[in-house]
């Protein structure tokens, strides 16, 4: 395979078939079997990213975290994961992606057990951070191996479509399984579902996955990797503090400034090194850099809206956790469909039009959802979620495929780490940014209503932190005052939801404009070294109007 060296005998090596421009797999498992194992890894991480959403009210009731602690419980996973993706992604290029992946599996299992039996908010935050370390080891490894075993772009587009559809399956299964478990068990059970998945993935991964390391020379830049991790942590931590209403606090701007400085030093260091961890020259190419930026915008909207939507369905409409998971199911089903159709849409529309239309469809869905209120409108919710899921997944598919195709094979781990860092940055910033927008619109309304109703100022201040706290304060007050506070909090939450949706729509439309920098056609990427004959055959197939699946190279 171009740019890699065999580390064990099971490595799948692509070699030209005599007399043809195609390649066949020499030794090792079929690459489509490898894809199945990689998708199982992704399913694990995707489930853990969404399963906690429906459990947030139960966690709040049991552990009694403060508003900042609650944000940390949700955000610790993406924060730590995003900080360490470059470290573990580039480490995989040096010591072997399979080795890093299997270590991530084991750590994920240990952290899941610790999270399930946490007795305090601080222990749960620590367990979620440990899960983030495991996730940082797993996610770039799956994309890196996928990039290596699918050198042909047409095959890779199909593989990325399956990979992204599995991510949507995880988003669907997470809330459903979490809601079902919460109907019968305590909130910690949502983490225990990781253990059987780990028990299966660990031996299968050791047996089936190919091991490969980068063919590039030079030592692994340990100092650079640590600088990147610390810089990303500081930036996201500062954003989190700003999202908690501490924008002028030293706890916000000091980590933000220190993180930005470390990232700038990291970039400078990598540009000067003969063998950098990340080739920042690739980021300056339109397709790669634009894809990374679009991933951030897409996930920013997705994660922030998903968390707020779960709270709306449970706390405003009064649905159970299981009912909440079922209401969110259309979003994930539509995303699955978009992932499975992604390779065909990409060949028909090209990256530029596909990603731009995905952003526009998502913005339209978000604007439609501004029609929700304090009363249930299931038809509007289903229609909005379907369009939202299809648009988001279409956008993510086009971005990931363009990003992977631009990356040199020998830097697949680093490129995958950049893409997954963008994903996790978008998740962390999305919760902080949209959460702060929500709080800015929600808090003043609750405090004003409390003052007009004669409710003590301290009670109004507590109720302004979150809708869950407002319900708790209203329960202590009781009578007419409690009911007035409950109604005011619901009304303010819906108002804040509308404002948040409008902000998300603006960001999504900005993403549609940014997508205009992507290539018009998927064959616009530069061919990989040694793949010219294979690409020529693939382009001839595409020009003849054959479906993508018919042009897949047989192993």
Automatic annotation (TrEMBL):
Question: What molecular function terms (GO) are annotated for this protein?
Answer: transmembrane transporter activity
Q: Does the keyword Transport apply?
A: yes
Tell me the keywords, alphabetical order: Antibiotic resistance, Cell membrane, Membrane, Transmembrane, Transmembrane helix, Transport
Query: One GO biological process from the UniProt record?
Result: response to antibiotic
Ranges for the Major facilitator superfamily (MFS) profile domain?
34-523
Q: How does it sit in the membrane?
A: Multi-pass membrane protein
| Positions of the UniProt region annotated as Disordered | 1-25, 522-555
User: Could you tell me which Gene3D superfamilies the record lists for this protein?
Assistant: MFS general substrate transporter like domains (1.20.1250.20), Multidrug resistance protein D (1.20.1720.10)
**UniProt cross-references to Pfam families, sorted A to Z:** MFS_1
Q: Where in the cell is it found?
A: Cell membrane
Name this polypeptide is given: MFS transporter
